[in-house]
Amino acid sequence: GAGVSQSPSNKVTEKGKDVELRCDPISGHTALYWYRQSLGQGLEFLIYFQGNSAPDKSGLPSDRFSAERTGGSVSTLTIQRTQQEDSAVYLCASNRMQGYEQYFGPGTRLTVT
Amino acid sequence: RKEVEQDPGPFNVPEGATVAFNCTYSNSASQSFFWYRQDCRKEPKLLMSVYSSGNEDGRFTAQLNRASQYISLLIRDSKLSDSATYLCVVDSWGKFQFGAGTQVVVTP
Lengths: 113, 108
Hints:
Chain A is built from no helices and ten strands. By secondary structure, chain A is mostly beta strands. By secondary structure, chain B is an all-beta fold. At the A-B interface, strand 4, strand 5 and strand 9 of A face strand 5, strand 9 and strand 10 of B.
């Protein structure tokens, strides 16, 4: 079946602009996660959606970052007033429920110039 | 202290040899454990789940020690294609914690 998809695959933006990154999880997966990974670094947790529960936003680095998940499926991560330190690969993952393995999308490589 | 800690390596392994490495975690209430593999500039991919009794998948063996709060991965008969970064992942009530990864380099 189809895996997790993300778009765009690459995004180059100017400092100060807003960007939106999209994630389509695997159909039927109730949980969705956003991470970011800077070059040569580990994964940094950003936000976690589980079903209809309030999202866990504890990993968002600043109030410039926000995410929503519509209809329990597609999610959008928005970064306002981008900064150069926002440059990273943004990864989305989903799993069917708590305790199960996550499946990752291919990521969006964001470059802020 | 990080919640999940791994030796970053690199572990340089001759082809055909065995390599093993551990990962420690701090949350004793953690429920599920996984090993993922990440190739350069690619997304992490599930290698295997780790069960309490230990489990094997081909050349890969994973062990869990809840008392000492660590998991291990052993790779037998290493192949060049095993070169990658191996991520230890611990799930605590839906919140996944990733280790920074252990780099393995298999040499001819």
